[in-house]
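Many introductory courses stop at the sequence. We go one step further.
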Amino acid sequence: MEQRTAGIRLEVNGEEREFRGPADTPLLWVLRDAFGLKGTKYGCGTGACGSCVVLMQGEPRHACTLPVADAAGKRVVTIEGLALGRTLHPLQEAFNTFGASQCGYCTPGMIMTSYHLLEQNPNPSEEEIRHGLEGNYCRCTGYQNIVAAVQTAAEKMRA
């Protein structure tokens, strides 16, 4: 049986894009394979680890479990979309400065979740940051550098 294909239009990092393929293709694979945006990572495939988090309409979503059809007509922002040209976003810069990404695999999801957190709460406490990142797992760090990076980025973003 042949899978149905659709021309699905969505906005990715401010650019109108179209995907032609099965409507149930996970957004993660559309971003990585069809659009060449390799920053969003595949971790668990079940939405449990947070490596694949992107923002859709400003809300964090697990791209590994989100059918591309659900993103039709919506605004999606990936880790590549946070930087302004060659200038890193304060979160990206802080993660780099604090060594908050050892292997770097979880980092895009951590940053996208942190971005959403700071949009909701520009001055979070350490506890609020840790709570906000509960759905993002890292096997390399003790999270302290991640928390410090988010705190520093929050300060810079408020300035």
